[in-house]
Every structure is written in C-alpha cells, then in structure tokens.
Amino acid sequence: MPVGPFGLDPAIWAVLRLVIAIALAAGLVFNGALAQIYLERKIQAIIQDRVGPIHTGPWGLLQTFADAIKLLGKEDIRARLTDRWFFLAAPAIVFSPMLASYVVIPFAPGVVGADLNIGLLYLTTLGSMTVLGVVIAGWASNNKYSLIGGLRSAGQLISYEVPQIVSLVTVVLVVGSLSLTHIVDSQPGIFINVLILPLAFVTYFIAGLAETNRNPFDLPEAESELVAGFLTEYSGMRWGLFFVAEYGEVTVVSSILTTLWFGGWHGPLTDINPIIGPALGVLWFTLKTYFFVLVFMWIRATLPRFRIDQLMSLCWKFLIPVTLVNLMVTATLLLAFPDQKLPVAVANWALLAAFAAAIPYLQRRRLAALRQRLETRRVALATAERSG
C-alpha cells in the first residue's frame, strides 16, 4: 500500500496538504505582512542609525499589531465623486491574484496546494492581473494624482513583465518543464540554477523589484510627487489591503527566486525520512524566501527613486535586449550541447560579467552627455546675454 509523507494514507494526505498549503499561504500573507513591516522598520532604523519601534510590546514587537488594529477600526471614507463599484473592487482585484499565487508554490515535498504541470505559466498569468487593479484604483478615484499613479503603474508593470517572463523562459529551457515541483527536483544538493543561469536570476530580480513597486521603482505611489499616487483617496483597511498585497507580492517574488534558482525546499537533512523531511523543507524554504525579503528591504533603504524616463529607459534599452540575448545564447547552446549544462553556465557568467561592466560605462556616458547639454545651454545663455 503506498504511503504518503508523514506515513499517512495518500487520500488523506491529498486533503491535508491543501489545508496545510492554505494555512502556510495565509500565514505568509497576513502574519508575514506584519512581520515584514516590523522587520522593515527595524532594518531601516539600523541602516539610518535610528532605534525604530521600541514602545509597544517588548522591543516594539506589538507595534505592527497595534497598527493593524487601528486600520481595522478606522472609518472607511470614500470621496463622493469616485466611481463607487470600481473604487471598492480595486483592492480585491490587487489582493486576490497575489493570494492565489500561493496555490502552486511548493513549500516542501508534497506540501503544495496544486502541483500543476503549468505552474509557472499560472504564476505569470496572475502576476499580470495586478496592474488591472492598480489602474482601476487610479481611474476610479477621480483624482489627477491617483490617475497619474495608475497610468505610471500600467506603463511600468507592462514593460517590466517582458524581461521578467523572458528570464523565466530561460529557466524553463534549461529544466524542460513548467512545473515548479519539477524545477525544484532538478536542483539537488549544490547544483542549483543560480550557478547555471546567474544572469537570468539578476534580470528577474531587477524586474521583480519593478513589478512589486519597490524602491527604486516605486513611482506609482511616489509621495514626493503624487501625494500617494493611486492610494491617495483610500483609507482604513482598503488602504491596508493594498499594502498587504504589496508585501505579499514581495513574498511571492522571493518564493519564485527561491524555487527557480536556489533549490526550493532543498537543504541539509530534508531527505533523511518522510516525517522530518517535509517539516525541514518548509523551514529551509522559508529561510531562503525571507533572505530575499530582507534584500528587498535593504535596497529600499539604500537606493534613491528613479525618474520615470530613467525607469523606462532601463527596461526597454537595457533589460529587454539583455534578456533576449541571454535567451538566444542559452537556446543555441542547449541545441548544440543537449546533454551538458556547463557551456550554458560559462556563457551566462560571461554575459553577467559584461552586464556588470556595462552599467558603470553607460552611466559615465549618460553623465557626460548631460554635462555636454548643460554646457551647451550655458554657452547659449551667455551668448544671448552678450548680444542683448
């Protein structure tokens, strides 16, 4: 008789694993959002030589819970001229695809809501739905700042989906499957995909920052320009839902990075027996995921916000050509050496080195061109003053 994980009957385990996956998703989204807010405050405080939350609970641990209770108790205010039904539906449209993404993420061997053979396609489809909710929120608010934030979000998210999806396709070419479980199984031990496809990892990570509206790509809610962007007219828990969705999206992107490039649940002692293995798998998966969450927070406290023209130029003039070249080179080498991954790894590391070298070179060219324009303008103004 076949035995599932933890020594359970497969029929019982099929139901139980769905319950566990839903509980893990809810924990990662709701409790995870509270934990991430606390972590972000503390990390930014450390980086900026501050203290951070200290008054509510020991070490300020209850501060985010107090904030959540405050949001739940706040009055839900809606401006009179907003488009009622679209305005009310927008937070749910943003939140629902993020929550549904956890259905196919494998937390450990057998611990997955639905092991779809097209799991990666499912994730990319849900990811492109978020922009719809943000645009609807901006348009339905009947506010110019909100509308500009929504339109910025549409341009940004649609643009950065291209390098993001091309980076994912590169992994699919190497592994030969769209199943997230199969992708994890293809990375035993130290043979993880980041050693074979480092450039795809870097380009996906940059696109993931843009897709989650994190610094330096947080233009849709740029408080220094647009009050709060598409969030301007929202208050109470509807405002809170947008932020829970944002932190949830950060966790989803971090989970995808863990699954596709860092071996998913694989780690020490995960294969010792069918009872302890899945529990340790969840532990290793969570630790890897939250490592990337911490990197997201570190970047927010480090980098300034791009201008909209810089943001779009980075995508269309740099990231998309790089990801397409990487995809073409990877596909060519896989055709030439179908049973070997070493040529793909060598080519990817070489492309990553060229990518890293090109960034400061292009930055120097951009600054030189800017200085030339400023000098030309100064000379023109001086000439006009003398002739006048």
Please outline the major beta sheet: none
> Could you tell me the radius of gyration in angstroms?
23 Å
Based on helices, strands and strand pairing, what is the structural class? mainly alpha
How many independent structural domains? 1
Shape descriptor: globular
Query: How many E strands?
Result: 0
Helix content: 55-70%
Number of helices: 13
Overall pLDDT: 84
Order of helix and strand elements from N to C terminus: HHHHHHHHHHHHH
Low-confidence runs: none
What's the N-to-C terminus distance? Answer: 98 Å
Estimate the strand proportion: under 5%
3D structure, described in words:
This protein is mostly helical. It has one domain (5-363). It is built from 13 helices and no strands.
Please name the defining characteristics of this protein.
13 helices, mainly alpha
In short:
By secondary structure, the chain is mainly α. It contains 13 helices and no strands. α5 (130-140) packs antiparallel against α6 (144-175) and α8 runs antiparallel to α12.
